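3.2 Worked example (two chains)
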Amino acid sequence: MLATTPDFWTQLNAEPTVGTLSRVRTWIRRFRRRVPEAWMKVTNLSSKMVVADRAQVASHGAARRKGLLGRKGLDSGEGLWILPCEAVHTFGMQFAIDLVYLDRNHKVKKVRSAVPAWRLSACLSAHSVLELPAGTVLATQTKRGDQLEMSPLTLR
């Protein structure tokens, strides 16, 4: 393994060489493969409605940074659950989204509907954010204080 070589950290802190950079890139690729893609079904226990059939979990750096950027839209029932997260932006996005800010117990702290592109939104008391297609919050009657349930989903 890369990190077990005796002079790895010395080489890493020294002036980078082609060999060192290549080994670091290889290690990063291996690490990315170890992070499984997770999906959840999100249910609003207060209104007894399904908020998202397929919410992708973005819990590691690359997925959290990318978010929904580069996508043309979200289908009905889709979503992205970013954790931990207290704020999101829609810079460069091509569609509006609904935002549901959650605490650690999945209780809704704040809701924003149809947030258009080029906006910032934050809730500093939140632990995570659920990004949904515009109109989902109204359709599922999700509001502040509601309790959401996250159930693991296996996709084939």
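3.2.1 Second chain
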Amino acid sequence: MTPSLEVLKETVKRLIDKGNYKALERILEKSHKGDIVSIFRYLDRQKRIKLFQILMEIDLEKASDVLYDLDEDLQIEVLRALPINQATRILLTFSTGEISEIIDKLPEKLQNAVLNKLEEEEREEIQKYISYKDSIAPLISEDYISLLENKTVEDAINAFKTSSFDIDIAYIYVVDKKDRLVGVVSIKDLLNSPPNVQLKDIMNRDIISLSEDASKEDAIEIMKRYDLLSVPVVNEEEVLIGVIYIEEILDALSEKTTEEFFKFAGATEEELFYTSQILKIAKLRLPWLLASAIGELLAAFIISMFDYTIAQFLPIIFFLPLVIAISGNISSQSAIITTRGLSTGQITEYTKSFISTLLKEIRVALIVGIIISVIVGIIAFMWISNHVLGIVVAVALLFNMLFAALIGGSLPFILSKLGKDPSLATGPLTATFSDIVGVLVYLTIATIFIQNLKIF
């Protein structure tokens, strides 16, 4: 933070603490919106909300610009904290497309309040974004240049020069008289063509486009596969309805990565929008933790079923945490690899492709398992002075690692086949399942060898 921003931040904090809102109004009137955005995150929640409410009172347009430029988690925090009427008022300064980007993350009461204030056509448009959260609809921009195929290169260049879009235009989209997309011309091709040439003579007719009901995953895949800066979106009649730019795809990728990290931790991305509501965050995390608790209780019940084995040779229990921990790591690694393969297309929907990846994970687990099992088995033998115990631990650990690879590699594919998000398998689900199987396999092998263990 620059010295001037530091001074602004401290001044704002001091004026809010003293309740000197008149002086704060004067400061905000003179401050650039970019400076207000820059200091916003460095204020505590109460001061952020107060600052924004004062800014709304003195300059609604600047408040709207500030809100739009804030990171999404701060946008949602502000809108959730404001009274419904104030939140509705500021949201209505946004365009339909801008509202669509965040409306699905707002409380239902605020959603309804905003929708009720909109015209019927706008309301129907926004409701599509609420209904289809994974749709490309929020990514579609109406900022693009489309021209009829009989227009000339000179016409296209003039249209490009006079456009006032805030985004870099890389392509001109060519349409027929019914607005159906028939070709694409890059700016480079325009500049290298004579002015009087018609667009239909230089356009690329091999069009890569998305249908309006495509998912964000589809858009990300198309952009990556063909290395595009933008991709046109058409309806079922091939009419051009908008364009998705690379900037929106990068944002979508960031959101997807964040979502997957949360799932891996057994949490949800929604926590970002409840940073100060402890009970709400606890409620969001509770289902995952309850599921894990039930699974571990089942593991505890399985352990109790082998009380005879444990009573006969107590040291067998010393190595149970190690077996469970290593198996959990193997299952998580396999689950992540499979999930990644499914998301990138390396693993297709065909079973043969999945089997190939699964066998690879099992072979890796076998190699790693043999090495680790031998090391741990030797340590167990030297520690307890019982070579049978070393063999039991080594064999059980090897089998557990193989089962863990099978479980971790299979669950994402099974979830995918069931129409669920495969990344759910990278969280507590796989770890808990591996724990249950790990306990059962380890103590079963120990029970088989219990008589041999008691001899030494």
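3.3 Remarks
Strands lie at 146-148, 171-175, 181-186, 210-211, 230-234, 240-245.
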